[in-house]
Amino acid sequence: MSTDNTTDASTETESKCGASEAGSASESASEVETDTTSKCGASASSSTETSPDTGDDTASKCGASSSSGSSSSSSSSSCGASSSSGSSDEEEVGATVDDFDAEPGRLIAVGLGPGQPEGMTARARSALMDAEHIVGYTTYVELLPDEITEGADDIYNTPMCGEVSRTEEAIDRALAGNDVAIIGSGDPNVYALAGLALEIIESKGATATMLDFDVVPGVPAAQSCAARVGAPLVNDTVSISLSDHLTDMPTIESRLHAAAKEGFTITIYNPWSRKRRDNYEKCCEILLEHRDPETPVGVVHAAGREDEQVEIVELGELPELGETDLVDMTTTLLVGNEDTYVWDDRMVTPRGYETKYDY
């Protein structure tokens, strides 16, 4: 899924907590959270108060990140979420399973797909219609159809970079007895929060079985963007994110070398940002080291949004595109392999049928 916001104020769209959830999502860093008060009713609710300076009612009452007793808003850190240590670089789990007296509810991670209502699966829509509480990144919440938001008892959202805090919020609400859906664009298992949810559940001393934890898949950016340029991913393929917030750059470079020298098509997530130009440049250098400069590359900017742009270029042209508006954090790159070609303005990666059948 790709989301848009191409104003100067939102050019830097990377989360300091890691890659965007679907690999190509963005939001203005200056967006102000408007309604993030937790209503789950956990016993640890007295540790955090509303900020007297701002009046923002953004403090969690679920026991999430509340161990410091701070009077500051839970959206005050650089990641859009509070940390019990007072550090803007780390987020620590607050309440544990022992802080909740209620019979646990249910937690489900739901993938919204490309972003348009029609791109959501029937199962995802049904799961969200049944959820009492919905938790998610502000931009993703805004993508939900009115029938879903109006049917929920409560909706909790945080700006970019609140991954850990909002995931914990969702878990705490479920531990307090609510049926909760935590949402993300694309698929919950692609640079998203399904794994983080399980890690935090474990750290709280709870179990996935206790919360009847489930994952509802969605169409990830690789597939939705590939559909816009033809059929580039028909054979063996890999996905690599250029965000080095959670994976160091030497590891990313090693993976690029390994994928580029083999016959994989490659989907590149999070290719470029204002603070991270070198990664994109290094990626282009590695790809060109192993592949012909004429290799087709699909470039899909802001898929499914009003400012969507789709181009098919040659690999040799990719470095100069880093200086254009076409490549940013809302862009997904689809790099062909040695067999990929362009026909009728569409990328085609043969599956191998031509070696066994006449057609």
Described by the principal axes of the CA atoms, the overall outline is elongated
SSE topology string: EHEHHEHEHEHEEHEHEEHEEE
Number of strands: 13
First CA to last CA: what distance? 35 Å
CATH topology-level fold name of the domain at 222-348: Methyltransferase, Cobalt-precorrin-4 Transmethylase, Domain 2
CATH class of the domain at 222-348, named Alpha Beta
What's the CATH architecture name of the domain at 222-348? 2-Layer Sandwich
Largest β-sheet summary:
5 strands, parallel
What class do helices, strands and sheet pairing give?
alpha/beta
What value does the average pLDDT take? 80
Low-confidence parts, pLDDT < 50 over ≥5 residues?
1-39, 41-61, 63-90
Biased composition (Low complexity): 18-31, 62-87
GO molecular function, one term: precorrin-3B C17-methyltransferase activity
Protein name: Precorrin-3B C(17)-methyltransferase
Organism: Haloarcula hispanica
